[in-house]
Queue: 4 jobs
Job 1
Amino acid sequence: MSQSAKVAGLGDPFAQFNVYIGNRPNFSEYPSLDFVNPLTAGEINAISQSCGNGWRKVFNVYAKLVFGLNVDNIVSLQGTDSWQSYRDNALLQISSNTSLLFSTPQLTQVEGIGSHVVHIIMGKNYAKSLELPFTLKWLDHEFAINLEHKLLVCPYFDYRQLSNIKIIRLVELIKQLTEEKIISL
């Protein structure tokens, strides 16, 4: 990420697993947040209760995705035994290596085999609205990739748009991306 760009969102400020979303929860100071704010235990639940079912789905799908990865060198499950436990006790907290960013991706070329930096843009329409300065290779009408920046575009984190089957596909793409073995192209 560029040193000069303001990065705003929720999660670990030093995360290497970054998800970009085109909206913000209308909760606390989040609408005007201009930095990455680590969440605390119980805060995801408070946001979900205050901001509605849509945000609960975003957090649930994010936790299911990370739990489905089950790869400590990308994101540690921190001893949790279910995606619900991971969501409540680790997701978007300090040292979780996860973030949910409201700012435009400021990406630099990621070099080195085995680099575990991952960028995921949530939603095809949001990705297109960003007018990214590099090319995305669309794998189908829902998933796109840019190998140079270790970036994926996937459906919005909602049960209907990013179903469990599509979460499995996204998990495989992330694993391939971090191992630089994209075989689905």
Note: The first helix runs from residue 43 to 51.
Job 2
Amino acid sequence: MFFRKRTAFFGTMALTLVAGFMLGQIGQAGTPSTPGSADDPIVTKSYVDEKLAQLTGGNSGNTGSSGGGFKVLVMKQGQTLKASTEAGLEVIVRNGNVAAIQGQLGGLSDVTGGADLTGGTTIMANHLLIFARNDGRGIQVNSAGDTYVLVRGAYTLQ
């Protein structure tokens, strides 16, 4: 009998603790976080646009950014395209005679061809190029007429 009372007592205590813990968790579940805090970060579109403009150097003059997808650029003979931030730039040349411009720390990464293109190398059409740094790397159009280039990232067109 003593053992039954003892078992019942400890069983009741265990159930009370579990029930109290669960009620405490349920009570906190509906507590809202403070907007703008680390638990609930809120950012407005204008804030993001402002920060992106600062990172890409704005969208004025001969600079630009393609945002999330590729952007079509029409380039003329003698024009150069270079990365304008350290974030990198992706380029696909669609047509024309285009040559690589080597930077201070190396050439362009031809992802499609699996090669490092040094300065003056003719770029094959439809190859994905990556400008890993903003150290002068770029491309230059050597053919007359319109040359179409797809870009993703921040760039400077001269």
Note: DSSP finds two helices and ten strands in the chain.
Job 3
Amino acid sequence: MPNNQSLNLVFTRRWAVPILAQLASTNGCKFVTLRNSLDGSRASIKASLELLDTLDLVRSNTGHGHPLRPEYLLTTKGVLISKPAAALVSSLIKAKAFEQGLKKWSMPIVLAIKSGSNRFSAISNYLDQATDRAVSTSLNELQKASIIQRELIDGRPPYNSYLLTRKALFFCPILDDMRQAMNG
């Protein structure tokens, strides 16, 4: 199993992936531009930027200069992940799953199921830092959004198995590209 910890961290903040997507299309921008285009709160955009800075994906544009000079730029590593991040945002919008897809554990759960972790305990182990309640809640929300489906497997005892739907299969290659960029 590849190291997913760093990619899972990207999804811990709601606006991190959309910020990467925005920076990919604009080659850097100001905080106010990010806030207005993403329609997020000041605090949540700032927390997402701090996370991306910590992960060495985004950096502040130091120094003074022209008022139109961008405040935030992608790092070399950020450039690699920003293109698949933009593709993910676009795919989530097309699938009408934007809000659900960018919740903290949604895409990491899709990766877990894709890797063969299709029982609750295996998904929970794959995510490492997610609580059982967070995994359960996310699985229910992903099921409602038709990103995953749950099957009851008859046995002793019966158990649930989680599978990706056709909708989720569009996200998988993009998530693989993001994981490769983070681990590359």
Note: The chain has a mean pLDDT of 89.
Job 4
Amino acid sequence: MKDTKETTQPVNTADTGTNEDNKAGTKTFTQADMDNLAGKIRGEEKAKNDQAIKDAVALAIAEERRQAKLTEEEREKEAKSKREAELKEREENITLRENRVKAQELLVKKNIPIELVDFVVDLDATKMEDKIDTLAKTYSKSVETGVTDKLKGNPPKDFSNDNSSGDKPKYTGTVAF
């Protein structure tokens, strides 16, 4: 015997509300609307990724064809120059890291916050030291100016020796305990 049981699935109906709700800009979306929107976004992203892959493959094929036309000597020369450029970049990165550490040490010695190290670090050590010296002078002068400005003002008057003022009450009696 066949079981012919029918199932019904709930249907999403958007509650449209009153005209006042629609005027206020409230809009409801059904699950189908959300699925369509998500599908559209995924499709756009997939198209972008596919195009990027196609461009990268085309560039790699063009480079391979260009390399195939070169002689063995030219390929070796090109590979050598590429390695030299990579080595130079690595060396510069190492030098920058070393100079950064050295600059931090110098800034600490001169009582300057090490957060300013990015403003003075340089590949050339002498330029970096000159920048640190200039920063130290400017920083010290700025701190001194700031402290002087904070301390400016009129000193308080000393009323303890001033008997000519009639404003102050004078104590002439005794105190009983």
Note: The radius of gyration is 39 Å.
